[in-house]
Amino acid sequence: MSILEIQKSKFIGYAYHVNDVKNVEEILSAQRKDHKKATHICYAYKINSGVEIVKFSDDGEPQGTAGRPILSVIEKKKLNNVIVVVVRYFGGIKLGAGGLVRAYTKTASLALGEL
User: Fold this and answer.
1) 2-113, which class in CATH?
2) Digit-coded pLDDT (tens) for 41-56
3) Spatial distance between the Cα atoms of 104 and 74, rounded to a whole number of angstroms
């Protein structure tokens, strides 16, 4: 787990090894249960077990500012069978598209560094 605070918003990153979509669904369900008051629970995953499955979600953040940057970190590190989840608690100050991309990218990178 990695925690990053930017202008009163808290970003919490988690990285897990996964084998299939069922693992992904279990992790996302647990994260939603653990972080009921979170503003956004964004994620990206890449599974390659014969067939490549790639998915990401911005979970209400402006399009392309959360899920895609998380996925980019996974791809840059050439990882497979991994999911990164970044939970955001909004702190009241808007970060703008560039600020969100930087925050989600950095949090994902820190989380993967702990994997």
Assistant:
1) alpha beta
2) 999 999 998 899 999 9
3) 12
